Structures are given as structure tokens and as C-alpha cells.
Amino acid sequence: MVGKVYLIGAGPGDPELLTLKAVRALGEADVVLVDDLVGREVLRFARRARVIEVGKRGGCKSTPQQFIERLMARCARRGRVVARLKGGDPFVFGRGGEEMLALRAAGIDYEVVPGVTAGLGIAAAMDVPVTHRELAHGVTFVSGHLRNGTEPDWRTLALTGTTLVVYMGFARVRHIAAELLAGGMPPCTPAAAVSSGTLPGERRVVTRLARLADDVARAGITSPALLVIGGVVSLARGTAAGLTRRDAA
Amino acid sequence: MVGKVYLIGAGPGDPELLTLKAVRALGEADVVLVDDLVGREVLRFARRARVIEVGKRGGCKSTPQQFIERLMARCARRGRVVARLKGGDPFVFGRGGEEMLALRAAGIDYEVVPGVTAGLGIAAAMDVPVTHRELAHGVTFVSGHLRNGTEPDWRTLALTGTTLVVYMGFARVRHIAAELLAGGMPPCTPAAAVSSGTLPGERRVVTRLARLADDVARAGITSPALLVIGGVVSLARGTAAGLTRRDAA
Q1: Active site (annotated) includes residue B100
Q2: This prediction's pTM
């Protein structure tokens, strides 16, 4: 008997944001490999599985990527159904693509179960529509932390007319804001930072781009956090700081 | 008794990509207002609801947006639980933000239930990781069809280093490809068009940016379809046309 690997997006945090397909795959699983950022409540759907934590966080001791890829393949070759559970969507950052390619190269059967990416889950929890016909032509999800010390071209991103959602950019928020301003993004552009989005411990600050770095520090937001930048942020429910609709237009 | 409106994302097509929260909200609903692009299978979760079709498609007779917003508010004021079901994620195009603002202005209680946006669902079904550390710093979801005849700044979008996913761009694929090329995107950039993504009738073509418009016409792809443009498209499962990993790097 040959096994299989499900690459599963667990959504942004709230266990109710798992898909039916993710729940089914967890129910079939013999083994679950789970990242740090996935809430433990979702493991109740993996009734008969052995759970292995393979988290890695910036700065902390972590499980090497190659080890994870080999472990998935080994379990599947032994006939096991493996659920590889990742936060958000498996293909939005988090190296799900690399894991898929490793499985493909190893000839292991796999299936990708998409999920609600953190940027959309958190925007929904804040009542921020990431697109809006008058305020944003689209939305860009970008990583603030790239390989080899390179980084996104913030000055170009400042000109796209899309809402920017920055993953893993919290530690560099001052630099990112400065680059966006240098690229021509107005200092009064509404901007937010959110940690533990969609969860009971959610913390957020809603402010302006020019003050984002200072206000994030003051508000005690901690990593991991998402940054959301663009006119639509003015629509956040209960937004203070004088961010009215008129300001954003 | 006061009612409530759930603004629900139904995901990209496959009913299994509904979230648990969407299923719960449908189960609570007295009334479901459903768009054209939502598969009818998901209505089985709305066991006791009256279903009202409020679809609108480009070119066809459609339900005016204001009528939908008033109907939601009226039902909620009568104490009904309303499920407003939209394809994909309610806040990625599709005017979910406008509907939320109308409810807020009317003082109606509402809750946003995020979903798997079509761009992520379809990419997962094609095995295309929309981000990849070597191939794309991020992903941009953009609408090819904007209000007032304006359009996204394709030449700037060509330079962002992100995977581009174009919603509602099918009818203008030739123009969009030409603009991206004019903006400096290489002609050999891998590109795909997908219709009925994640559903049994899915059709797709995987090619190069320079040939996208011709190949889409030849392949018989029909609207609505998504365009996915960027190096990551070379990773699609079963990709023909000589799109190897090396080409994309």
C-alpha cells in the first residue's frame, strides 16, 4: 500500500476557518507534521494521527527543511497518510512550494489543500476589504524577509495602486515604511499592524504610514505580525485616529 | 429580535473548500443571497433557508447592487439571519466591501467569513505555488476590469517581482499581455489561463506571456477565467510546452 501527503493550509488562526477538505484530510491522516504558527485546536480533527511538531521561527532552534521533506517522504513510502499542516495557505510563503517539489521529485503522491491566507483572514476580522473599487485595484501579498538578504522592491510596490499586505515584515517595519515613502506613497496612507489575527489574543494598531513604526512600538505589537497598508485600512471597524473615509479617498 | 448578515466567501468552486464557519453560518441562515459564480452544491448546507439568486455577470441582465444591499438590510431588520454568499473571498473583488459598508451605514449587525480566494484555489489545483523563494517575492491579485474605464498600471505591475493573478481580465488578455511586455516583463515569462478552476469542467492552458492571447483563443478557454503570470507557473503539474524549471529561473 502506498501513502500520500496532503499539503494543508490551516487558515489564519481561528479553527473555524479550516476548510471541509482540510478536516477530511486530517481525519484520514496517520501522521501530522505541524508548524509553530498553527493553532493546536485544529489537531482535534486528526483523531488517530501521531502529531510531530516541526516548527521553525526566526531566531529560534528549528527543524531543518530537508529533514521535514525527508520525513514526509519516508512516512508516505511506508504507506502512511501524512497531513503537512501549515498556517494560512500552503502556497503563500512558508515554503509549501518547496515541499511540493521535493515530494514530486521523490515520486510521492500528494495533494494541495488551499486555505484562507492570513492576510485575508485578518483583513476580514478587521473589516478591511483588501480590494475596493474606489480605493484599491487589487492586493499584493509580499514577504518582508527574503533569502540572501535581498528584499522586495518597495519603491515599485508603492506605485502599484494595490493594498499591500506584508508578511514577516514586522522586524523591518521602519525600513519598509521609509522605502514606501521614498517610492512616493503618501505619508497619510492608512496602515495597520496586527498580531495573533482572528484569535482571542489579537492585537492591532491602525494609523498612518508615516507613524506606523512608532505606533507599532508603542502599541506593544509582537512578532509574528502582518502589516496592511493602503486606503482600505481606513474602513477598519472602530477605527480611531481620525481615519475617516474621506481621508482615504 | 434583530437579525444579522453573514458576508461569506464560498471559495473557488469545489464545495469542499468551504470553511467550517461558512457551513455553520449557512446552517443558521433563514435567507441566502447567492451570486452566479457560486456552485449550487454548497446550498445543501443551507437546510432551512430561502434561496434568492442575485447574480450578475458582465453583459447579462443583472440584479442592481443597491437592490441587493437593501434586501439584505430589510431581511435582517425583520429578524432574519441572512447569508450573503460570494465566490472566493468576500473581500477580493466582487464588491463585498461595498456591501459591508452599506450594512454598517444601515446599522445592521454583520460578520465577515473569509474564504479561499479563487487565485489561491486554482493555483493549488494546478500545483502552482504563487510564492516561491527563488521565483516570486509575493503575489498580486488584480482586477482586469475597473470602474470608469480605468485600468491597473500594468507596466508598474510588470516590475514588482510578484506573481500576477488577474481576475476578470480574460476579455482583455491581449491588451494586458501587451502592456506587461511593454513594461519590461520578459516574453518567455510562464503564463496560464484557467476557467472553472477546481471544478470537474476545469480548462487551462499553460504557455508563455508572448503567446498567451493566441493560446487562450486556441484552447477554447471561456469567461470567467483567471490569468496567472510569473515564473512559478512553470511548476504547474504536467506542464507541457517545454516549461521546465530551468526556463523559469
Answers
A1: no
A2: 0.93
